[in-house]
Specification:
Blueprint: H1 6-14, E1 55-59, H2 66-84, E2 87-90, H3 96-104, E3 110-113, H4 118-125, E4 127-134, E5 142-148, E6 164-167, H5 173-187, E7 196-199, H6 203-211, E8 217-221, H7 222-230, E9 240-248, E10 252-256, H8 261-273, H9 280-285, E11 292-295, H10 298-301, H11 303-311
Parallel strand pairs: 1-2, 1-3, 6-7, 6-8
Antiparallel strand pairs: 3-10, 4-10, 4-11, 5-8, 5-9
Helix pairs in contact: 1-11, 2-8, 3-4, 5-11
Length: about 325
C-alpha cells in the first residue's frame, strides 16, 4: 500500500543505527560545495565552471530492457526539448555505477537515480534531485518486498536460513541495503553465514529469477513487481510475499550541478509542466500509482535512506 508517511520509515531505520562508524556520515565529495546547507552540490558561482550543452543526455535508472523505457519516456523528452530548446538523447544505462560515473564525468545531464543510489549520486556526481513521481493526492513511495515462489518451503524470513537470496546491486536500497540490514537486525540473519547471497543486477531480473525458481527468494521493489505483473512478464501466482517493509521514496529526478542556473530552471519547468494525460509515461507508471511529478527535498525525503546507509556502514568515498 502506498503511503505518504516517511516518518514511519524512520522508526524502523532508527533500530538499525546502533554502532554506526563515524566515517559513515553523509558528505559531499571535496569537488562540490554546499554553502546553503541543503546537502546537495551548489551550482558553481564561477560562470566559467558552468556548462550549457547543445544536447541534453537523459538517463532513467537501470532496467532490464532499456529499449522499452526509451519509448515510455519519449513524449516527456519531446516536451523537455520544447521547453529548453535543446535536443535530448535517451541514454540507456546498464548499472547504477555506470550512471553515476557518467554524470560525474559530465556525460549525463538529466537523470532519475533509484532510491538507494541517490545519495551516492549526490555525494559523488554532483546530482541535484528536485522531483519524484507521485499520485494526484501527493502520495508517493514503494515498499521493499522479500518474495519467494509457492512451494519453496519459505513462509517467513526466518525460513531463509540455508537458502539462496537474490539482491540486485549493492547501491540499491530495496534491492540490497534495506533488506540486508533488516534481515540482520530483525531476524538475526547474515549473508554468507545464514543464507547464500546472489546479485542479479536488476529488480526485474530478480523477480523473473524467483518466478523461474532460479533463486529461492529475492528482495525487490514492489512497484517494479507490480508493473511486471501488469505487463504479463510474470504471473501473480508465481510469486509469494513473505515480508513487506515500510514505505521508501522512489526514484529521484534531477540535474548535474554544473548546468547553468537558467538551464536548470528550464529543466525543472519541463518536469512540472508536463501533461501526463494520454502518454505512455502515464500508461506505464500509473500501474504503481504515479501520475505526476512533485517537488522533493533530498535533505528531508532521503533522511531514512541515509539512516539505512549508516546502518550498513556505507562510506561515501568517491574514486
Amino acid at each position: 500500500m502506498r503511503r505518504f508517511l516517511l516518518t514511519l520509515a524512520v522508526s524502523v531505520a532508527s533500530c538499525l543505527t546502533a554502532a554506526i562508524p563515524a566515517s559513515a556520515a553523509f558528505q559531499l565529495d571535496s569537488r562540490y560545495q554546499d554553502e546553503d546547507g541543503d546537502m546537495i552540490a551548489d551550482i558553481p558561482a564561477d560562470a566559467s565552471a558552468q556548462v550549457d550543452p547543445s544536447m541534453l543526455i537523459f538517463a532513467y535508472t537501470p532496467v532490464e530492457d532499456p529499449a522499452v523505457y526509451a519509448e515510455v519516456w519519449q513524449e516527456f523528452l519531446d516536451h523537455l526539448t520544447e521547453v529548453t530548446g535543446k535536443r535530448v538523447q535517451f541514454f540507456p544505462v546498464q548499472s547504477n555505477a555506470a550512471q553515476i560515473e557518467a554524470m560525474r564525468a559530465g556525460r549525463l545531464h538529466v537523470a532519475g537515480f533509484n532510491t538507494g543510489s541517490n545519495p551516492l549520486a549526490v555525494a559523488c556526481a554532483g546530482f541535484r534531485p528536485f522531483t519524484m513521481m507521485a499520485g494526484e493526492d501527493g502520495s508517493f513511495g514503494y515498499e521493499m518486498e522479500i518474495i519467494t515462489y509457492p512451494g519453496s518451503g519459505i513462509e517467513k524470513p526466518q525460513d531463509l536460513k540455508g537458502k539462496t537470496m537474490a539482491f540486485t546491486a549493492e547501491t540499491s536500497n530495496s534491492g540490497y541495503k534495506a533488506p540486508s540490514a533488516l534481515l540482520k537486525s530483525e531476524f538475526g540473519l547474515e549473508a554468507e553465514r545464514d543464507y547464500a547471497p546472489r546479485f542479479s543486477g536488476a529488480h526485474d531480473t530478480s523477480v523473473l529469477g524467483v518466478a523461474n525458481k532460479d533463486y529461492d527468494a529475492a528482495a525487490v521493489a514492489n512497484s517494479i513487481k507490480a508493473r511486471m505483473i501488469d505487463r504479463g512478464l510474470v504471473e501473480k501466482d508465481q510469486l509469494k510475499t513473505i515480508y513487506t517493509s515500510q514505505t521508501f521514496p522512489t526514484t529521484g529526478f534531477g540535474v548535474a550541478h554544473n548546468l547553468t542556473p537558467e538551464l536548470q530552471a528550464k529543466i525543472k519547468e519541463a518536469f512540472f509542466s508536463f501533461d501526463w494525460e494520454g502518454t505512455k509515461l502515464l500508461e506505464e507508471f500509473s500501474k504503481s500509482g504515479d501520475t505526476t511529478f512533485i517537488p522533493i527535498s533530498f535533505k528531508d525525503d532521503w533522511a531514512v535512506i541515509r539512516k539505512i546507509d549508516e546502518a550498513n556502514g556505507v562510506v561515501y568515498s568517491c574514486n
